[in-house]
User: Fold FMN reductase from Prevotella lacticifex.
Amino acid sequence: MQERCKIIKRKTYLCNNNNPTDMKKILFIIGSLRKQSFNRELSEMVRDMLKGRAEVTELDYSQVPFINQDDEYPAPQAVAEARKAVAEADGVWIFTPEYNYSYPGRVKNLIDWLSRPVDPADRNAPTVLKGKKFTLTGAGGKGATAGCRKLLTTLLTVLKANVMTEGQTGIALNIEAWTEGRMILTEEQKAQLAKQAEIFLAFVEDE
Assistant:
């Protein structure tokens, strides 16, 4: 049967042959908001790899404000929507560049919001991050975002998320990517991404 694909709410790409309700929900978070982001390109490659196997949604967090406890309750609409998207996902896949050996400030800000309890009357209530399954991928300089991914793994683990440390993919961009604005992966790099997708699907499906 020919595969059918449609775009649904929150940039969701649903591709299925039979029963879409059986597919896991994977939420993509892109660490760079740049329109021509290399990490966005990576996410699009992975989305194609997951066609027919998962329901993929990209989180738009561009309107999430910088965290301020004065504005915490009630949460800003963009924050509430981000929390809802994470809560509904079976797994979260972050694609991020590395800025000064760490993760981008907007990613940290988003995680700070997600780490806060949603009930002002119960400061010990679980957050949407607790137990949530994550995997990380990054394209950057010669370090292939290793420093960023290490720090991000530590941060998410401290916040009680369940981070898949096996099979993370780091891409060291060549000079042509920076000078010509285009990223071309080797067959080995493509295979590494495909392997990460396989491992993450199994990780998410493991109850």
Remarks:
- The longest strand covers residues 133-140.
- Helices lie at 38-49, 77-88, 105-114, 146-158, 175-180, 187-205.
- Residues 4-205 form a domain with the Rossmann fold fold (CATH 3.40.50.360).
- Residues 103 and 148 are 5 Å apart (CA to CA).
